[in-house]
Design brief:
Blueprint: E1 2-3, E2 9-14, E3 32-37, H1 42-47, E4 53-57, H2 58-61, E5 68-78, E6 85-89, E7 98-101, H3 107-120, E8 125-128, E9 139-144, H4 147-150, E10 158-161, H5 162-170, E11 174-182, E12 185-186, H6 188-203, H7 205-212, H8 220-230, E13 231-234, H9 237-252
Parallel strand pairs: 1-12, 2-3, 2-4, 7-8, 7-9
Antiparallel strand pairs: 4-11, 5-11, 5-13, 6-9, 6-10
Length: about 260
């Protein structure tokens, strides 16, 4: 494994409120340059070498096209309700057979497919969201991130939180994204920075909610509850168990058939 000799790390960061507690101090750290984007585009930044590490959706770690490793125990996860990973529909979940998704999400799409397979024996048809197009009764809409608050649809009778559904199914937490780098580089020094930033962010989550929430379209009280009670930021033994189970289900349901196991640096 090569040792890391860079004077500056380029980091691909999720552009949602839920990532703010992972980066305190990094924006002003002369050794770090932060590049913000939606989750689905961060893997490509890492693939093209435009960043040295990124908050990559967990589903992308299973692809044999990537030779990646998890370099930190910091993550974006949940242990029950997420509030920002939701399916909206006109019908109960068991009647939904099609899911409209936007281009921002990777892991959440696969999670929805697994949940519908496991709970209802339904292989969801996945189609892109088309703005202004009427949605049929058997079709749900998956939204993730800040838009669940800033552009929350109000015309739907049913809402399904995927974190809650996963918890009910497995009794486990869930990990949506974690810090990843190429596998052949020693990023131990960077991992120390990332873990320290996460620790500082968790301690100051209420201040982060007040500072960043309103500018990102969040009421402060809701942002505070979200960052302090809903989103979880550490990979422990139960999170690793959940990631391994997610990997098994991804294989079982042929979502990433030629998958590889997770690698922790």
């Amino acid at each position: 494994m090569q040792s890391e000799n860079r004077q500056k790390w380029r980091l691909g960061v999720v552009s949602y409120l839920n990532a703010k507690p992972l980066i305190p101090g990094l924006e002003t750290d002369p050794q770090c340059e932060l590049i913000f984007d939606v989750p689905s585009r961060l893997p490509e930044l890492l693939n093209r070498g435009e960043v040295d590490a990124a908050l990559v959706p967990v589903i992308d770690l299973f692809s044999t096209q990537h030779d990646w490793q998890i370099i930190s125990n910091a993550c974006i996860g949940c242990d029950g309700e997420t509030f920002t990973v939701r399916v909206y529909s006109h019908a109960p979940a068991e009647e939904v057979t099609c899911l409209c998704v936007d281009g921002d999400s990777h892991t959440s799409v696969s999670l929805a497919r697994i949940l519908w397979q496991q709970q209802y024996g339904c292989d969801l048809k996945i189609v892109p969201i088309e703005s202004g197009k009427p949605v049929s009764r058997d079709t749900g809409i998956l939204l993730i991130g800040d838009k669940v608050v800033t552009a929350r649809p109000t015309e739907y009778e049913y809402e399904i939180d995927l974190g809650s559904s996963w918890k009910s199914l497995t009794s486990l937490p869930f990990v949506f994204a974690t810090w990843v780098s190429a596998r052949d580089v020693d990023h131990s020094a960077l991992a120390v920075k990332l873990n320290r930033a996460r620790d500082a962010g968790v301690k100051s989550a209420e201040l982060i909610a007040a500072d960043f929430g309103p500018g990102m379209g969040w009421p402060v009280r809701l942002a505070t509850r979200y960052l302090t009670q809903r989103i979880k930021y550490t990979i422990g033994p139960r999170q690793k168990e959940a990631m391994q189970l997610f990997h098994q289900l991804v294989q079982r349901h042929n979502i990433v058939p030629d998958s590889q196991t997770l690698v922790f640096a």
